[in-house]
Write a structure and sequence with these properties.
It contains nine helices and four strands; from the N terminus they run ββαααααααββαα. By secondary structure, it is mainly α. Among the domains are: 118 residues, no CATH class; 30 residues, no CATH class; 39 residues, no CATH class. The chain starts with a strand and ends in an 8-residue tail after the last helix.
């Protein structure tokens, strides 16, 4: 090799390891990041409304929890074993395409395939067991969550972990969308999301926000400030639930007709009742309701 300035030309050339120019390591890094993200953000199994219903007549009412299906949870996630099975199957499809006539290529069933089938059966059994356990208890009821945590804590822990992962994905994705890609982890995460290799839930707003506000929105007389939102009944526990057993569009309510102090509850109505200036019907109803007590106490009721 010719020399340049007394030194060999080879001494001025950078050294490369085999495959360095093709960046195999980066490919493995991306594949590894994809596998990790898919395992963490795999879409959980979600039980449909009515999934807790039990068929068959003759069982006592309330014996089983038929209102609330199990919360979402993962029963299977992709891993190296699944990836190997997919690659092997694609090779099987094409391996014999170019063989001469009469030539057969054998492909015996491996122990890995048998083990994977057993894994599928095992996970199906876990799903059945979860449904069975869920029929015995309703975690919303006092004391039942404590019992569940003592006999089968994984049932609760796995579902709590799923909620955290859902919000982690939504928060991380929203922060990157708002403030851009600022770290290597951000870059890898957003690449996988944009390529639809991983997906997850998004945070939503209940009411669209606007850059301009009507003056009425700041008024002290709107119902959300003055407590006039009671409406035609008292909402029952979990009437606002979005998960588990949940009500229809009208919600679950205790009607005003059956509850004490449930009528005449707007600010205006209560102010009028302070001075007896309500409508004739309202005052007549008050008199009728309080007459026995007033008579017993020898009280005199005067109307202004």
């Amino acid at each position: 090799m010719p020399s340049i300035g007394g030194a060999s030309a080879s001494s001025h050339m950078p050294s490369f390891s085999p495959g360095q120019g093709t960046n195999f390591d980066k490919g493995r890094e991306i594949s590894g990041a994809e596998m990790g993200a898919k395992q963490r953000y795999t879409t959980p199994t979600t039980f449909a409304d009515g999934a807790a219903a039990i068929s068959g007549a003759g069982r006592p009412a309330g014996q089983y929890n038929e209102q609330q299906a199990p919360a979402p949870v993962k029963y299977n996630v992709p891993g190296p074993q699944e990836q190997y099975m997919q690659n092997r199957q694609e090779i099987r499809k094409t391996a014999g395409a170019g063989l001469p006539a009469g030539v057969m290529r054998t492909d015996p069933i491996t122990d890995q395939e048998v083990a994977y089938l057993q894994k599928m059966k095992d996970q199906s059994e876990v799903a059945d067991f979860d449904v069975y356990v869920n029929s015995l208890i309703n975690p919303r009821k006092p004391g039942e969550l404590q019992w569940l945590m003592s006999v089968y804590p994984e049932f609760v822990q796995r579902r709590i972990e799923q909620v955290h992962q859902d919000y982690e994905f939504a928060l991380r994705n929203q922060m990157i969308d708002m403030w851009g890609i600022n770290t290597k982890d951000d870059l890898m995460f957003k690449y996988l999301v944009d390529q639809k290799k991983v997906d997850g839930p998004r945070l939503g707003r209940h009411v669209p926000l606007s850059d301009t506000y009507a003056a009425g929105a700041l008024s002290p007389f709107i119902s959300k400030f003055n407590g006039d939102s009671k409406g035609d009944g008292l909402y029952a526990p979990f009437s606002s639930a979005k998960d588990g057993a949940k009500p229809g569009a009208d919600g679950w309510k205790f009607t005003n007709a059956t509850n004490p102090l449930s009528t005449g509850r707007t600010t205006a109505e209560m102010a009028r009742s302070m001075y007896g200036t309500g409508t004739k019907e309202q005052i007549t109803a008050i008199e009728a309701a309080t007459l026995p007590r007033r008579a017993a106490a020898n009280m005199q009721y005067s109307r202004f």
